[in-house]
Every structure is written in structure tokens, then in C-alpha cells.
Design goal:
Rossmann fold; seven-stranded mixed beta sheet; 14 strands; alpha/beta; single chain
Length: 418
């Protein structure tokens, strides 16, 4: 059955979870006549969600499916052109759905920020997805579309100018207002637990090219930290007076961006280097705050990697936000982010990409980005790349997202700097 003959354009799997509901609500408001279905473990809960989505969604089919019953996922995947999923931690629950989509030739998008999960998908399903024509696209939320798409936009701008390949490139979070989702926390805990007991997992997390399609083909730059504590002016003169420190999601994001470069046959350049930081302000306390953020991030990763498996899961469940939960609508609306990515090309030209969005990054903003990714995969086929297999957002649909995100309230512009 071809994509055009599938029963559903998009299936939202995990529609009864917090971000799943937000994504379904976004699609109900924006997707027009798209054929959308809601999927999850409980028919009653799916029905309750659909009743909150307004008149446009009342005819949407409901599909009962569960990762513990792979046959139900096979039927779900075979019925859809695109499946988008919010069911995590993905390392724990995600592989059966990827397997079903790869086998059925169905495009797939998720919100994972788990490098170990993505590596498993590459190893297990990339070849099959190539054969069936499926696009398995990971990290389609705040992790990692702002990272991946701003670098892609810089590449496009520099290429139009004939300004050479990208060299030293740095992503800087300038503003971040909002909370961390329970799903993100659960994913981080799952990855950390795996690394605590598996030396190979620790090696993969430490390798900046752990998601590369061909590790031996990657350049060697020596020490290549994913995030650095330093003065902003070391990145760009426009950041003079600011201090930057570690950004918590640098590990998954940097690996996604480096995989994009490799998938695009090193279109960014063979000397492309990438890091992510967070601006900690320009007050006298800026350098201290940046140093503490970087040291705290490193210490947390190191200590958690050694000891988290010794902490009973029940203790963590009592103190950490739970998956499927989230903040009030007022809090989600008040959130926002602004990120800037700076690059210097091989000819010495400097560029900056700025991306911003209203809404809590982990919830509202992410639901918009995931929803638009699903719509791009379903309806913007003429703007998608020819690549198949396990992909990244920019490698699969960079041009499609650059074209469609502004209408969704996502600002992204690039400028050549003096």
C-alpha cells in the first residue's frame, strides 16, 4: 500500500499523555482536512482526549495500541503515512514502534533526546528503513530542532553567498523561560541508568560522533567539548561582555547536528566543529554563574553515571516530575526561548541564525515543532530530502521546516555579520 493509499495521514501515538494531548490539540487547530487518528493504550482515555479537541477532531479514529503488543503497533504503522510519538522514555518503550514503521515503510517522528536509543535504532533499523523507504526522524521537539535547523539555515545562507563551508559553529541559548518536562527527566534518568552499568553505553555518550553513519570517516580535532565555559566574545564580538556555560541538552543536540552533517555528505564541511552553550548574563556574577553551571553539569553527569543505579526507582519517582504531567496552561503560555547560532566559514565570513518561539520549550513549543514535523512529512514531500533510513530533522526535512515554521509562530532568520 503506497503512502497516498494509507488510511491515515498522521497517527498521534501517546495522545493521552501530556505532550501528546498538546500535539493533538495543535493539529486539531491547524491541520485542516488532514486525516488524523489518535492512538494509545486506553480507548476510554483516547475518547476523553478527543472530546476536548473541538468539532474538527470528533471524526478522528481512535486506535488502541501498546508497545507490549507489537502486533498492534504493526497495524497502526501500516495504516499511516506518518506516525508521531510522544511515548517515552524511548530507550524503554520506543523500539517496537520504530521496528513497525521501518517494516511498513512509514515515516516516523519522535521527541527523543536519548543518544543511546537513536544509536540502537541506527544499528537495528536503518538498513530496513532504507529498503522500505521509511524516514525515521528523531528529536523533533525543542530537542533538537532549534539546534539542527539553525545550523542548516546557516549552511543554506553561506552556500547562497558562496562563502565557503562552515567552520567553528556555536549554539547559544539566550533566553529560556519554562520548565523541564517529566518525559525529558524520565528519558535522562533512563539513559543515565543504562550508562551506569554498561561501559559501551558510557563510551558512546562520551564520543562526539556516536551517531555518525561512519565513525571512521569523521575528522579528528582532539578534545572537542560539547559545551564550554568561556567569554561570549570568544564566540562572537556581538556577545562581548557575556559569559556562557554548559547547556544541559548539549550532549544529544550536538550529536544530532554532527549526524546531519554526515548524512548530507559533509555539506557543512570537513572542518565543521560544533558546541552548545547557555548565556549566563553580563553582570559581575556572570563568570561565576557560567562556571557553576558548567561544573554542575559535569558533576551531575559524572556522579549520576556512577551512582544512580543504586538509588531505588521509588525514591526518584517521589522527587522527580512524572512523565505525562506538566504545568498549567498559563505557565505554558508564558514560556519562551531565544537561541542564536554563530558560525565562521572557511573564507572568514561570519553569520548568525536566531530562532525564537513563544510557549514553554518543553511543552507548548515542542508540541508545535512535533506537529509541524508530522505535517511536513505527510504533505511537503516535494521539499523533503531524498534520504531514507534513520535521519535527523534537518537531514530529512530541513527545507520543508524552514518554509513552514514561520506560519506556525516560529521565528528563524539568518544574517551575515560584519
Amino acid at each position: 500500500m503506497t503512502g497516498a493509499e494509507r488510511e491515515h495521514d498522521i497517527v498521534v501515538y501517546g495522545a493521552t499523555g501530556f505532550v501528546g494531548k498538546l500535539t493533538a490539540r495543535y493539529l486539531a487547530a491547524t491541520a485542516g482536512g488532514a486525516r488524523i487518528a489518535l492512538a494509545g493504550r486506553s480507548a476510554d482515555r483516547l475518547l476523553a482526549v478527543r472530546e476536548t479537541l473541538g468539532e474538527a477532531a470528533q471524526s478522528w479514529p481512535l486506535i488502541t495500541a501498546d508497545a507490549d503488543q507489537p502486533s498492534s503497533l504493526n497495524g497502526l504503522a501500516a495504516s499511516a503515512r506518518v506516525v508521531i510519538t510522544t511515548v517515552g522514555p524511548y530507550l524503554k518503550y520506543g523500539l517496537p514502534l520504530v521496528a513497525a514503521c521501518a517494516a511498513a515503510g512509514t515515516d516516523y517522528a519522535d521527541l527523543t533526546g536519548e543518544p543511546l536509543f537513536i544509536r540502537k535504532c541506527i544499528d537495528l533499523y536503518h538498513k530496513q528503513a532504507l529498503d522500505t523507504g521509511a524516514r525515521i526522524v528523531h528529536a523533533c521537539g525543542f530537542d533538537s530542532i532549534p539546534s539542527d535547523l539553525t545550523v542548516f539555515a546557516l549552511y543554506r545562507h553561506a552556500a547562497r553567498d558562496g562563502a565557503g563551508a562552515l567552520g567553528d559553529t556555536n549554539f547559544v541559548v539566550r533566553k529560556l523561560a519554562g520548565g523541564v518536562s517529566g518525559g525529558t527527566v524520565a528519558s535522562m534518568i533512563e539513559v543515565t541508568r543504562a550508562a551506569a552499568t554498561d561501559p559501551e553505553a558510557r563510551r558512546l555518550l562520551a564520543d562526539p560522533y556516536s551517531l555518525s553513519p561512519d565513525r571512521a570517516a569523521e575528522p579528528e580535532f582532539g578534545a572537542q567539548p560539547d559545551a564550554r565555559w568561556r567569554r561570549g566574545r570568544e564566540i562572537a564580538p556581538e556577545l562581548d561582555g557575556y559569559w556562557v556555560g554548559a547547556f544541559a541538552m548539549a550532549i544529544p543536540n550536538t550529536r544530532i547536528v554532527r549526524r546531519t552533517n554526515a548524512l548530507l555528505d559533509y555539506a557543512y564541511g570537513r572542518r565543521f566543529q560544533y558546541a552548545e552553550q547557555m548565556s549566563l548574563g553580563r553582570s559581575p556574577a556572570g563568570p561565576v554563574a557560567a562556571a557553576m553551571a558548567t561544573a554542575g553539569n559535569s558533576a551531575t553527569v559524572a556522579l549520576a553515571g556512577r551512582f544512580i543505579h543504586k538509588v531505588p526507582q521509588g525514591v526518584l519517582d517521589r522527587v522527580l516530575p512524572k512523565p505525562g504531567t506538566g504545568p498549567s496552561e498559563q505557565t505554558r503560555e508564558r514560556g519562551s526561548y531565544v537561541v542564536e547560532t554563530y558560525t565562521t566559514t572557511t573564507t572568514g565570513a561570519r553569520y548568525r541564525a536566531r530562532m525564537s518561539q513563544q510557549g514553554d520549550p518543553g511543552y507548548k513549543a515542542t508540541s508545535v515543532l512535533l506537529g509541524e514535523s508530522g505535517l511536513a512529512l505527510a504533505f511537503d514531500r516535494d521539499k523533503l530530502s531524498e534520504l531514507r533510513g534513520v535521519l535527523t530533522p534537518a537531514a530529512a526535512m530541513g527545507d520543508a521546516l524552514l518554509a513552514r515554521l514561520p506560519a506556525a509562530g516560529v521565528s528563524l532568520d539568518t544574517v551575515r555579520l560584519p
